[in-house]
Amino acid sequence: MKKAVKLLQLTDLHLFGSQKTKMVGINPLETLQKVITKILSESQQNHPDLTILTGDISQDYSLESYKLATKILRQLPCPTVVTMGNHDHRSSFTKVFGNPTQLVTN
Fold first, then answer.
1. Is the pLDDT assigned to residue 8 strictly greater than 70?
2. Which listed residue, 25, 28, 89, 97, has the most CB atoms within 10 A of its CB?
3. Which of 43, 59, 52, 49 minimizes the C-alpha distance to 4?
4. Which pairing describes strands 103-105 and 80-83: parallel, antiparallel, or unpaired?
């Protein structure tokens, strides 16, 4: 029997460079961290084999927001592939992630 590949898709993080900034009363960083904590609390059998981040990473286009996303995603025990969304800033995105479709963590 072939082993199923477990994918985790994350999208529309809308992070800010400032870790305390809220959008419509919600801190997107805190929300992302809760999701990551939940994933890591699952048994290793349930951990994803690959994470795909499908854009809209930053709300304020800051370099810091993209670096923050990378820092948070490095907690996951699998590689992450990142693509740009329509709200991402190409210059900031590529400074942190490089090519929008390359492997960025392992």
1. yes
2. 97
3. 49
4. antiparallel
Q: Cα(22)–Cα(8) distance, rounded to whole angstroms?
A: 25
**Average pLDDT over all residues of the chain:** 91
Angle, CA 55 vertex, CA 81 and CA 63 arms, to 5° = 90
Measured distance between the N- and C-terminal CA atoms of the chain, rounded to whole angstroms: 26
71/104 Cα distance (integer angstroms): 11
**84: region left, alpha or beta (phi > 0 left; psi from -120 to 50 alpha):** beta
Which pLDDT does position 48 carry in this prediction? Answer: 94
Task: Return d(Cα 65, Cα 71) in angstroms, integer.
Answer: 10
What tens digit of pLDDT does each residue of 20-56 get?
999 999 999 999 999 999 999 988 888 999 999 999 9
